[in-house]
Design a protein that fits this description.
The chain is of the alpha/beta class and about 230 residues long. It has one domain (about 60-230): Vaccinia Virus protein VP39 (Rossmann fold, 3-Layer(aba) Sandwich). It has eleven helices and seven strands. Strands 3-2-1-4-5-7-6 form a seven-stranded mixed sheet, sandwiched between helices. A hairpin with a 6-residue loop joins strand 6 and strand 7. Helix 2 (about 25-35) crosses helix 3, helix 3 (about 40-55) runs antiparallel to helix 5 (about 90-95) and helix 3 (about 40-55) packs across helix 6 (about 110-125). The radius of gyration is 17 Å and the shape is globular. This is catechol O-methyltransferase. Its cofactor is Mg(2+).
């Protein structure tokens, strides 16, 4: 069922990439540049959702889980937020549109092609003053946050990168003293593709208080969930 659906999407994407000589991520960006309103992050988010629900599936957080993300960003009301896994810039735009004046989002992307697309997406949405895109592996960037990027502590962290990095990066955030009492971590895709070791770690740790938000995989009727873990110090 699910695996076949996603496999079909991958095959279709590869064929399209070959004939169009561009990546799916570039197609998403082009669709936004042609159809969204420049400088309007809400329009950019809606346009990406439209493309990914009607034309090609993509691993953005999507609209259903996006509403959960919005709610938790509003609850955290962060001055400094961190996102691990920028991809096309969808959630960076989604988060930044809710940030108060003077707040900033640092978003980390390992893949240079995704980073190039995200940079244009962020600029087109008009949120480049609030968002700083950091290119490279999360395990190298996290230890640099305090000195190089002048982060004292983080108020909100969105984990949406490689699922096997969720646990080591959470531990790294703790080791680097980047979390304070009340810092909210939100992890996407904890059911599909799944992050069982992360759930096991935060749920058993006395340092976190967890809440699960059942939902569906972006743009599909496949069960998924987000996990909120509040750092207790």
């Amino acid at each position: 069922g699910t695996a076949a659906l996603i496999w079909n999407e991958i095959i279709r994407e590869k064929v399209t990439n070959f004939f169009m000589n561009q990546s799916k991520e570039q197609r998403i960006l082009n669709f936004v540049l042609q159809n969204a309103v420049r400088g309007d992050p809400y329009s950019v988010v809606d346009t990406i959702d439209k493309y990914c629900s009607q034309k090609e599936w993509a691993m953005n957080v999507g609209d259903e889980k996006g509403k959960i993300l919005d709610k938790i960003v509003e609850e955290a009301n962060p001055s400094v937020a961190l996102e691990l896994g920028t991809y096309c810039g969808y959630s960076a735009v989604r988060i930044s549109r809710l940030l108060k004046a003077g707040a900033r989002l640092l978003t980390v992307e390992f893949n240079p092609e995704f980073a190039a697309v995200a940079k244009q997406m962020i600029e087109f949405a008009g949120v480049q003053d609030k968002v700083k895109l950091l290119e490279g592996p999360s395990e190298e960037i996290i230890p640099q946050l305090k000195k190089k990027y002048e982060v004292d502590t983080l108020d909100f962290v969105f984990l949406d990168h490689w699922k096997d990095r969720y646990t080591p990066d959470t531990k790294l955030l703790q080791e680097c003293n980047l979390l304070r009492k009340g810092t909210i971590l939100l992890a996407d895709n904890v059911i599909f593709p799944g992050a069982p070791d992360f759930l096991n770690y935060v749920r058993k740790s006395p340092h976190f208080q967890c809440t699960n938000y059942p939902s569906h995989l972006e743009y599909m009727q496949v069960e998924d969930a987000m996990e909120k873990a509040v750092f207790l110090g």
